């Protein structure tokens, strides 16, 4: 953790020249375009540089995620650092949650930028970009059509559904999977601070691959594909970001030695409240995915 802190402290000047966390909280929509740039640059590196290597191109799906994480990691660290500082300064729980919500909005806009960029390039250049989502397509097929996995992967797409189960069974299954992701997001944040971005960017790339499959790689169908997944996806990802902030705040507090005296309970209480809010949001997102989205698509 000490080494991690020093690395990012030395890089503060550069990231502040590009995007300040405080500015992002004032104008969160700007992070949408930043997210698109980071995702596009990462994808270009994989397609035009590493895609030329016969060995490395087989791991294109992971390389896209890794480069995107590298791009946004400094920003994620500094916004977590900013939120941890608020825990020390603000004692009112309601005001504190409102302040954290501004950071979540900025991160959600950035996440949407990832999805739109990945989906856009996947739709207009499927032959060049598609192979670099190989792991994402396999993940999609494993979830949606495990009994015909090989055929699904070969075709690079299947009709999109919400799964075989319906009603309460589907809600419980989706909620259980989402809680699993939330737990790992929190653990990654606790252990690595901003390290939870790997899980979140990975989810963005899987969603983008699913949108590409749903739209049959047709650009004109992209808005419909985005709506199909974002109705329940936005609250779901919002919950993951809340969990990431909760774990990251504790991690940064340990690094800065702020877990002492009255500040200890205040920080832990705030993180616990954020985790509870994230769980409630995941319950609502599961209900939306099972009962609302199928009515519209």
Instruction: Please give the count of helices.
Output: 13
Shape descriptor reads globular
What's the total number of strands? 0
Major sheet size, sense and barrel closure: none
Average pLDDT figure: 79
User: What is the ordering of alpha helices and beta strands?
Assistant: HHHHHHHHHHHHH
- What class, by secondary structure content? mainly alpha
Helix content class: over 70%
> What gyration radius follows from the Cα positions, in whole Å?
19 Å
Low-confidence stretches: 1-17, 157-165
First CA to last CA: what distance?
Answer: 46 Å
Strand content: under 5%
How many structural units, i.e. domains? 1
Can you characterise this structure?
This protein has 297 residues and is mainly alpha-helical. It has one domain. It has 13 helices and no strands. The protein has helices at 2-10, 12-18, 21-26, 30-48, 60-89, 93-124, 126-129, 134-144, 149-155, 167-192, 197-214, 222-255, 262-296.
Break the fold down into its secondary structure elements and pairings.
Elements: H1 2-10, H2 12-18, H3 21-26, H4 30-48, H5 60-89, H6 93-124, H7 126-129, H8 134-144, H9 149-155, H10 167-192, H11 197-214, H12 222-255, H13 262-296
């Amino acid at each position: 953790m000490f080494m991690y802190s020093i690395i990012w402290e030395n890089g503060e000047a550069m990231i502040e020249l590009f995007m300040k966390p405080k500015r992002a909280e004032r104008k969160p929509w700007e992070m949408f375009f930043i997210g698109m740039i980071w995702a596009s640059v990462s994808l270009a590196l994989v397609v035009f540089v590493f895609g030329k290597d016969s060995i490395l191109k087989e791991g294109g799906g992971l390389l896209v995620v890794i480069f995107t994480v590298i791009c946004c990691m400094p920003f994620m660290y500094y916004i977590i650092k900013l939120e941890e500082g608020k825990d020390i300064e603000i004692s009112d729980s309601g005001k504190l949650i409102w302040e954290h919500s501004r950071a979540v909005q900025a991160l959600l806009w950035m996440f949407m930028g990832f999805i739109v960029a990945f989906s856009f390039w996947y739709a207009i250049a499927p032959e060049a970009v598609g192979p670099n989502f190989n792991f994402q397509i396999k993940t999609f097929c494993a979830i949606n059509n495990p009994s015909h996995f090989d055929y699904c992967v070969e075709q690079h797409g299947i009709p999109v559904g919400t799964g075989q189960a319906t009603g309460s069974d589907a809600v419980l299954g989706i909620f259980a999977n989402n809680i699993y992701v939330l737990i790992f997001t929190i653990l990654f944040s606790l252990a690595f601070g901003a390290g939870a971005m790997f899980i979140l960017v990975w989810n963005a790339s899987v969603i983008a691959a699913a949108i590409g499959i749903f739209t049959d790689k047709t650009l004109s169908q992209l808005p419909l594909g985005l709506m199909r997944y974002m109705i329940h996806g936005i609250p779901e990802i919002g919950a993951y970001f809340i969990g990431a902030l909760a774990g990251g705040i504790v991690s940064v507090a340990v690094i800065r030695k702020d877990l002492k005296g009255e500040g200890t309970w205040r920080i832990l209480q705030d993180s616990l409240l954020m985790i509870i809010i994230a769980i409630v949001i995941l319950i609502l997102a599961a209900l939306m995915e099972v009962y609302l989205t199928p009515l519209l698509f």
